[in-house]
Amino acid sequence: MRILLIRLRQIGDVVFTTPAVHALRAQYPSSHIAYIVEPNAAAIVEGNPDIDEVIVAPRGGGMGGFAADMRLGRRLRAERFDLAIDFHGGPRASLLTWLSGARERVGYNVPGRGWMYTRRVPRTRSAHGRHSVINQWALIDALRADIPRPAPDTFPVMMHGSRDAQASVARRLADAGVSPADRIVVMHVSAGNPFRRWPAASFADVAARIVAEHHDRRLLVTSGPSEHDAAAHVIATARERLTDEGARARIVACGEFSLAELRALVDRASLYIGGDSGPMHVASTSSVPIVALYGPTMPERSAPWRDPAARSAAVEVHGLPCRPCDQRRCEPGDFRCLCRIDPAQVVDASERLLGDAAVQ
Fold first, then answer.
1. Is it the case that residue 313 has pLDDT exceeding 80?
2. Is 317 exposed, middle or buried (0-12, 13-18, 19+ CB in 10 A)?
3. For residue 182, how many C-alpha atoms fall within 13 Å in the half-sphere facing its CB?
C-alpha cells in the first residue's frame, strides 16, 4: 500500500501529526509512507523512521508557484498512491491531495473544497475544543474504527535527532564556555506575532532570577530568524539586572539555532521556557521539563503531548472573557492574556521543575 500524507507548514501542527503517522505505520507496517511538507517545517519529519519519503515542496506565489504545484501533482499521480490524507486542509494542500489521484482521499469537509476528497471529516474550529493531536487523529479514525485511541504515553509526538545537529550544538556550547556539568535552561523569545509576544522585560526578569544564585546554571536565549534583536535585548537587559559579573556570564548568547539544532539543544537542557509556539512543540518531542506560557491559546488544545512522566507546567491568566481568541484582533487592545503573566509565576514554575529534575 502507498500512503501520502500532507501537512505543509506551521511547525507545531506538523509535530501534532506525528502520533497519527506512527499509528498508520503500526497498522500498515509494509506500506510506503510519503509526507509532503514545506521547507520551514521539514526538519520535523526528516529522519522519522515511520516515513519512507519526505517530499519538500517550497511555497511559491503566482503562476510560477501554481506551475510548480502542477508538476508536483503529476509526480504524485505517477507514484500511484492508494491513500492520501490531508492533515492541513488549506487550498494548496487540498489541491495536491486531489492532484495525487489517490484512490482514497481523506480530508476535512471544508466549504468549496470538500469535493476534492472521497472521504470528508467535520473540522473542529472551536478554540476551546479537543487537543490538536485529537483533531489530526480524526482523519485516520475515519479510515478504521479499530485503530487505538491516542494517548500521550502511547502515541507521543516525535522528532528524531540529527547527529550533525548534535555535533554542531556540542561545539557551540563548548565555544560559549558551557561545560557538560552545567545545567542549561533554554528560553525561547517569541516576538514576531503580538499575540505570542511576552514582554522582553519579563523574559529578562526571569532570566536574571534563574541564574542569580546558581553557579551551575547557564541560560541560553534562543529566537526565530526575525526575532534576533528581541533576543539580544533580553540578554542585555538580563545582564544589566545582575550586579555579579559571574552571574552575568551565566546568561549565554549562542546565536540562532536551526530546528534540528534546537532539538539537539533541548536534549542537553534541564529546562525549556517559552510561549505556545513551534519551538515549544519541538521541545515537547524530548523529555526536557517545559514551562509553557499561554496567551490567547489554551493548554487543552496545545499542551505538550508526551508521556506525563516528562514534566510540564502551564502558566496562564485565568478569568479573561476574551480568552481564548482567534488571534485576529485583540478586543481589549493590550494583549492582557500575555502581558498580565507575572514573571514570578514563571520563575516559581521553573524552580519547581528544576528542583524535581535535580532529585530524580
1. yes
2. middle
3. 20
Question: Which cell numbers in the block locate residue 150?
Answer: 491516542
- pLDDT, position 126: 56
The DSSP secondary structure of 325-360, one letter per residue, reads: --SS--SSSS-HHHHT--HHHHHHHHHHHHHHHHH-
Q: What is the SS3 assignment for 213? A: coil
Q: Helix (H, G, I), strand (E, B), or coil: what is residue 91?
A: helix
Residue 56 half-sphere exposure toward CB, CA atoms < 13 A: 9
Mean pLDDT, rounded, for 71-98 = 97
Q: State yes or no: pLDDT of 191 exceeds 70.
A: no
d(CA 165, CA 159): 13
Q: Within 10 A of 171 (CB to CB), how many other CB atoms are there?
A: 10
Task: Provide the mean pLDDT of the chain.
Answer: 94
pLDDT band at 195 (very low <50, low <70, confident <90, very high): confident
| Residue 150 neighbours by CB distance under 10 Å | 21
Q: What is the spatial distance between Cα 282 and Cα 143, in angstroms, rounded to a whole number? A: 28
Helices (H), the chain: 11-27, 42-45, 62-78, 91-99, 132-141, 163-175, 200-211, 228-240, 245-249, 259-268, 278-283, 299-302, 336-339, 343-359
Q: What is the pLDDT of residue 62?
A: 93
Q: Is the pTM of this model over 0.70?
A: yes
Domains identified in the chain and CATH numbers: 2-141 (3.40.50.2000), 163-359 (3.40.50.2000)
- Alpha-carbon distance of 70 to 48, in angstroms, equals 27
pLDDT score for 192: 62
